[in-house]
Amino acid sequence: MRTRHIEVFNSIYKTGSVTSAAKHLNVSQPSVSKVLAHAEQQLGFALFERIRMKLVPTPEAHILFKHTAVMEDVLIDINQISESLTEFPKDRLRLSCTPSLGIDYLPKAIAIFKKNNPNVSLEISTLQYSELKNKIIDTSIDIAIAQDQKEDKEIGVLNLTKGVFVLVKPENNKNMNLESTPFIKLSSISPLGKKLDKYIQKNNINLKSTITSDNYQMAASLVINGFGYSILDEFTAKISQSRGITISPLKPKLEFSIDLMYLKEKPLSIMTKKFMEFISNFNYTV
């Protein structure tokens, strides 16, 4: 029996007539009669006999209904779940980002998204650049947000917004001589570090560097403690400004992209797509 056969059979069995079954299923009476006839033809036996103007289930129908009634409950559950997923997708979203974006940018976005989507279950983590791609490929996370990412055969990239590098100095030493002051350099392991290296070489900037850090917050903390100065992404700099950092624009200007990464070969859930649409239109302000 097909699913439609079961729906019609169960409805006639419970209501006792084709007319009532048609009303219950919100279809025409001839349509119900046609489906019933087709079901009986495939089964090879009658399901109902007309006795005194009523459709009376045959003995075979009584036996069959014990099983089709269970099937009907399953179909109802499936329909309810389908409607719930469409209207109120209760889904898990596993999201990761680089540490610098996890300080303020992503938390602000998530706070708004969670408020508008209270049913979503979020798992959030921060990872270094080298780990993000591997975690997406082995499906440990669904999507990731990082700076200056490139699309390849496995990883898709959605550009979200732009950011800029800024010059940061200790607030209590605004007039420091940069030529004789230690420069805290970002590690070239990261895409931002590589971009900054190329910028420094291209513009023939002479820097005295004795410390290299792959942690942008640590670089900012060293500036706060008066060790030297650095060039950082605007997100790390702005969140550290209240702790004793002065920020100046970098000239010439140096931009970087903020990108969302996802696995191309894996279908995205409704909630993941919804978050991607949201974060694409998210307007970050400090």
Q: CATH topology of the largest domain, which one?
A: D-Maltodextrin-Binding Protein, domain 2
The residue-averaged pLDDT reads 87
Order of helices and strands: HHHEEHEHEHEEEHEHEHEEH
Give the helix proportion (percent range): 40-55%
Task: Specify the structural class.
Answer: alpha/beta
Counting structural domains, the number is 2
DSSP, total strands:
11
Number of helices: 10
CATH architecture of the largest domain: 3-Layer(aba) Sandwich
Low-pLDDT sequence parts = none
Spatial separation of the terminal alpha carbons:
62 Å
CATH class of the largest domain, please? Alpha Beta
**Radius of gyration from the CA trace?**
32 Å
Q: How does the overall form come out from the CA principal axes?
A: rod-shaped
The proportion of strand residues reads 15-25%
Q: How is the biggest beta sheet arranged?
A: 9 strands, mixed
Describe the secondary structure blueprint for this structure.
Elements lengths: L2 H13 L2 H8 L3 H15 L4 E4 L2 E4 L1 H29 L4 E6 L7 H12 L4 E6 L2 H9 L5 E5 L7 E16 L12 E4 L4 H12 L6 E5 L2 H9 L4 E5 H7 L4 E5 L5 E9 L6 H11 L6
Parallel strand pairs: 3-4, 3-5, 7-8, 7-9
Antiparallel strand pairs: 1-2, 5-11, 6-9, 6-10, 6-11
Task: Produce a short descriptive summary.
Helix content is 44%, strand content 24%.
Which features characterize this protein?
single chain; 286 residues; alpha/beta; Arc Repressor Mutant, subunit A; D-Maltodextrin-Binding Protein, domain 2; 2 domains; nine-stranded mixed beta sheet; two-stranded antiparallel ribbon; 10 helices; rod-shaped
